[in-house]
Design goal:
Blueprint (H helix, E strand, L loop, with lengths): L20 E3 L17 H15 L3 E4 L23 E2 L2 E4 L5 E3 L4 E9 L6 E10 L2 E8 L14 E2 L4 E4 L12 E7 L12 E2 L4 H7 L4 H4 L7
Parallel strand pairs: 1-2
Antiparallel strand pairs: 2-4, 3-12, 4-11, 5-10, 6-7, 6-9, 7-8, 8-11
InterPro entries: Cell_wall_metabolism_enzyme (IPR050570), Dup_hybrid_motif (IPR011055), M23ase_b-sheet_dom (IPR016047)
GO molecular function, one term: metalloendopeptidase activity
Protein name: Peptidase family M23
């Protein structure tokens, strides 16, 4: 399906562009990361927000299919079969408390607190229908209070305030950011879906998880 033909509401309430957004690099090729103790969230947080302050930007962005170095900080990404290090969503790094809006009409499919160091923390999944085809969108690293009073099946309108970028440690103990991801099929998942894949799994996940920038339309990610 061609998502370019649809109109989407800006999920941060404003367009993400070169004027307000900085593309961030979390690959092994970013040598500035090497001395950063990523296991200490406060240190990791200082690194991220220093980057934004130096460039006078409100948001940092990036990550779709990025082979990342930052997942060595948590055992969540190490399994007996393989190490997961390829990011399947887009991260929008910004101050905790920033509101997040639904990009398109849908309903609440599921939600839960995926607690644990390096996990999603509070997470919401919306279900949408576009020309008769289902699409799911995931919002991770939220405030715990964003899950209060939610109801599965509740209708959500495009532009409706859905949640907020959460603070650490309740957001899975990450520097504040929104993990935004798209999925065509959730399988048996509920309130959760892998946000990082191992290289040997990438072909499947790349087919099932389209580029979130088809909705975000951030010019920084087109360069």
């Amino acid at each position: 399906m061609n998502l370019n033909k649809f109109d989407f509401y800006a999920i941060m309430g404003e367009s993400l562009s070169f004027e307000n957004t900085l593309k961030l690099d979390f690959t092994e090729g970013n040598h500035e990361l090497k001395p950063v103790d990523l296991s200490k969230t406060e240190v990791f947080n200082q690194y991220v927000f220093n980057q934004l302050r130096q460039k006078n930007k409100k948001y940092g962005i990036g990550g779709y299919l990025e082979k990342r170095a930052i997942y060595r900080r948590s055992e969540v990404f190490a399994t007996a079969a393989a190490f997961r290090n390829i990011h399947l969503g887009v991260d929008i790094w910004t101050e905790a408390g920033a509101p997040v809006f639904a990009p398109i009409d849908g309903m609440i499919h599921s939600f839960q607190d995926n607690a644990g160091f390096g996990n999603y923390g509070p997470t919401i999944i919306l279900e949408h229908e576009l020309d008769g085809k289902k699409l799911f969108s995931l919002y991770g690293h939220l405030f715990q209070k964003d899950l209060e009073k939610l109801e599965v099946g509740r209708k959500i309108k495009a532009g409706e305030k859905l949640c907020h970028v959460g603070p650490f440690p309740e957001n899975g103990d990450w520097p504040p950011h929104l993990h935004f991801q798209l999925m065509w099929d959730l399988g048996e998942n509920w309130g959760d879906y892998p946000g990082v894949a191992a290289e040997k799994e990438l072909e499947f996940y790349q087919r099932n998880c389209p580029d979130p920038n088809l909705i975000l339309r951030c010019s920084c990610l087109d360069s």
